[in-house]
Design goal:
Blueprint: H1 2-21, H2 23-48
């Protein structure tokens, strides 16, 4: 659980930094990050049950 939490915090910082640098890039990075997180959560639940 902790690695996932650290990944989420790190991803949020990266997304925010990209958004400050360029809002369009920030939105793209955030979208990709959300897809990746959804994939990780889906895969994690499937493996643990």
């Amino acid at each position: 659980m902790l690695p996932t939490l650290l990944f989420l915090i790190g991803g949020a910082i990266v997304c925010y930094g990209a958004y400050v640098f360029n809002p369009i890039i920030g939105l793209v990075v955030t979208g990709l990050f959300m897809i990746l997180v959804a994939f990780m959560i889906d895969r994690g639940q499937g493996g643990e049950t």
